[in-house]
From TrEMBL:
The keyword Membrane applies. It comes from the Bacteria. Keywords: Membrane, Transmembrane, Transmembrane helix. NCBIfam families: MAG1210_fam. The chain crosses the membrane at residues 75-98, 104-127. This is Uncharacterized protein.
Length: 592
């Protein structure tokens, strides 16, 4: 418990101040130390890498200049050719029509000589430039490959899971699980009533990260969801007809008219979208429900902010009056209508628990979160239903949590590697920390303990179905998707068998997508000629397709960065089709 109090002291119920003055700097220092230690551990020749990288950039700049010079030469050559042809045509016209040139020698000898001389000159320049550029490119490739070769030993040492490790070292209040265990998810369902309200047969988990804040659980879950909607398809044709009119002199004239006719059809269309949700589970205020939507209040000017507060004050005053008349329990915090106006949780169902949650200290801290202009401010929706808190923020939804972080580090230059690493770690820490900021702003949450079940490390571990879905979505989709699927696929588990002896989950998966077929509808449209015309509209019919597969999944106990020997035993196993970020092993068995 002493560790918990120290962590609370670090936050001090003011997450924005704590981040700006403490955590941000601490995390940056830890990240710098880690990457510098890794580079030193790799034993690479840093100075030679920097020298080779510098030479590569130098020759890259030369290559760009040569490329631009070649484009200029080609442009001049084309211009001379066009001008020569135009001059020749004009001179020919003048000679034939006006006898302007005394002899045809000037026309048919001088101009061609000038053209051929210019052509030869610039062709020579282009050929010479291309030769120089080719030689230069060979040199820059040599320096690039040498720089890559020198830095290569660093990348295997940057282990998966380091972003979580650095975050926890900087901010010990947040700790991560290796997996969301099956037993743990069951515990959350029993003790907190936890279910993902956005989970359905048309959604699949594409990212999952679980952990706890002072022993209170959290789950970050990203779903890919298919929603069947409609799409408009458009087509057009151009028609023409002749109209006759008689002028004032009695002369009958024909006038050609044209018109573009357009038509559209509306057809079913599958839409796919993703959404990250942070679920935080806490027993405080267990009967309270409310919803607040983000409004980016931090972007308002001082004048706009005052106007907004005055307007919302009137709204809450009116709600108080209506609640009294109708006998409802709603009662605004009349002592702090500014907080009411910016947090704006008008649909709350329990005034007592709402006030227990949002004490004056919580209101003050939450206000700083909402009005923070230096980070994300009011970009989050906050939904509380009993013991479950769901936070949906724009910044977390936009951050590529599920993407292999190593992809952001690949480079040839050790200085660029350090910069890329530090930027990624900073962005990751900033995104995760500020996703929790609304939770950290509420003292009651930080002071409500929860006794977690601590599972034995050596006990065989099976993942929750949410985690299984996540790791299934990391493998090559062609392995489990229907061969004719032309859209994204929703992968769902339809059967599961836990093999205690081997430690593998044997799971049956159905992957659902859509095949598409081009169709043409002909829509009758009346034209300006008074006739009906058939306008073809091309559209696509989306037909559901699905395929079933059987896979074996095994969860190892450690992050890669924790250097678990168990993970190393599987590195050369040819049957493994995926050892992903937490060294989960997935074997594809067969299509069913």
């Amino acid at each position: 418990m002493k560790e918990n109090f120290n962590a609370i002291d670090e936050i001090d119920y003011d997450p924005i101040e704590a981040y700006n003055k403490n955590f941000k700097t601490k995390h940056k220092e830890l990240s710098k130390k880690y990457i510098n230690d890794i580079i030193e551990q790799s034993g690479i020749d840093v100075s030679t890498n920097k020298e080779e990288s510098k030479k590569y950039r130098k020759y890259s700049e030369i290559n760009d200049k040569l490329k631009r010079k070649g484009s200029i030469f080609k442009g001049i050559l084309i211009s001379i050719s066009i001008l020569t042809i135009v001059a020749l045509l004009i001179a020919s016209f003048l000679y034939v029509s006006l006898k302007w040139f005394g002899t045809p020698i000037t026309l048919f000898v001088v101009f061609p000589i000038i053209f051929i001389a210019s052509l030869s000159l610039f062709l020579t320049l282009i050929i010479k430039n291309n030769k120089i550029r080719k030689n230069n490119k060979e040199i820059l490739i040599k320096h690039y490959e040498k720089a890559k070769e020198l830095i290569a030993p660093v990348f295997p040492l940057i282990k998966h899971g380091i972003r979580e490790k650095l975050l926890t070292e900087a901010c010990s209040i947040i700790k991560f699980d290796k997996y969301l265990r099956d037993e743990t998810l069951f515990e959350y369902k029993i003790n907190f009533g936890f279910e993902d309200p956005y989970d359905s047969k048309n959604s699949s988990c594409v990212f999952l990260q679980s952990g706890y804040v002072l022993n209170n659980p959290f789950v970050i879950k990203k779903n890919l969801t298919m929603t069947m909607g409609t799409k408009n398809y458009y087509g057009s044709i151009t028609i023409s007809w002749t109209e006759y009119s008689t002028d004032a002199n009695g002369t009958r004239r024909a006038v050609l008219r044209t018109q573009t006719l357009t038509a559209h059809v509306t057809k079913s269309y599958p839409y796919y979208n993703t959404q990250n949700v942070l679920y935080y589970l806490n027993n405080a205020a267990p009967n309270l429900k409310f919803t607040r939507e983000f409004s980016h209040i931090e972007k308002l000017s001082e004048k706009e902010y005052k106007k907004h507060i005055n307007k919302m004050n009137k709204v809450f005053t009116k709600m108080d009056q209506e609640a009294i008349k109708e006998g409802r329990t709603f009662k605004s915090m009349s002592g702090n209508l500014e907080f009411e106006s910016i947090f704006n949780a008008k649909d709350r169902n329990n005034e007592l628990e709402y006030r227990l949650l949002f004490t004056p200290l919580a209101q003050k801290s939450m206000k700083k979160v909402l009005l923070d202009k230096n980070n994300y401010g009011d970009d989050f929706s906050f939904i509380k239903f009993n013991k479950i808190n769901a936070l949906i923020s724009e910044h977390l939804n936009e951050f590529p949590l599920a993407t292999n972080e190593k992809l952001f580090y690949e480079t040839y230059d050790v200085d660029i590697l350090i910069d890329n690493f530090l930027k990624y770690q900073e962005n990751y820490f900033k995104n995760i920390y500020h996703s929790f900021a609304p939770i950290f702003a509420i003292p009651l949450y930080l002071n409500t303990p929860y006794e977690r079940n601590i599972y034995e490390e050596d006990k065989q571990m099976f993942m929750s179905e949410y985690d299984l879905e996540y790791y299934i979505n990391l493998i090559n989709p062609k392995l489990i998707a229907h061969e004719n699927s032309k859209t994204q696929n929703i992968n769902k588990i339809i059967g599961r068998y836990k093999n205690i002896e081997s430690g593998y989950d044997e799971i049956d998966v159905i992957s659902s997508g859509f095949d598409s077929f081009e169709r043409v509808d002909y829509i009758s449209v009346r034209g300006g000629d008074g006739k009906l015309h058939s306008v073809p509209v091309t559209w696509y019919e989306y037909v559901p397709v699905s395929a079933k597969s059987r896979l074996h999944v095994k969860a190892l106990n450690k992050y890669e960065c924790e250097n678990d020997e168990t993970n190393q035993n599987y590195e050369n196993d040819s049957s493994i089709i995926n050892m992903n970020k937490n060294s989960t092993i997935i074997n594809f068995i067969r299509k069913m």
